[in-house]
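Troubleshooting log. The previous structure file for this entry was overwritten by mistake, so regenerating from the original sequence record. Sequence copied from the archived sheet and checked twice against the printout by T.R.
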Amino acid sequence: MHNSNLLYEFIHQYTSGQDKYYVTIDEIQYVDGFEDLLNSLKNKGCDVYITGSNSKMLSADISTALRGQSIEIRMQTLSFSEFYSYVRGDKNEVFNTYLLYGGFPYFATEKNSEFKVRYVNMLHDTVETKDIIERYGIRNPDIFNAVYNFLCSNIGSSISAKKISDALRSNGYKTITPDIIGNYLTWFCESFLFSKVYRYDIKENEYLKHRINIMLRI
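Regenerated output below.
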């Protein structure tokens, strides 16, 4: 049901009483005009839970649509302890698997290594292509992919937009600038592909914002 008015009428049939109603809507980005729908349900007194794909919207879009009257619940991948509770067996071997493939629940149940690699590639392609390149209209995917590969090769290292720019320019990417890199870093993190980890200077008691560590989420 893609029409927000029709969906509202459908929900209204089951939420017209005085009781407290809990409404769950999956993949809300496919509903045209979902912002008005959410505000109508909020004004109706419903407790609404929604999910959405990053390729169509980000959590910030929901917060804007609800004018700050929403709470974001981020579902992280499995921690190692959670992952191990499913897999069991030799802990060192399981930990190596966890480091290699990540903490998505699929990897806790799938035994075939080839299928795991395909799944990782699918996640990467979906997030990179749909969530970032298409969403932001990136015109030079080659440079974008070069930045991605650089980040993957420097996981846990202190980096900056200028450091990445200098490294890529020395390898022939002459049009790259720190501003472009800064945008890419922001979009990577907004799409939950990477996370920024800021260094903490105990002596000065402040974050060193000019250098960050980057961590791959997938």
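Strands lie at 22-25, 47-50, 158-159, 194-201, 206-216. Archived copy saved in two places this time.
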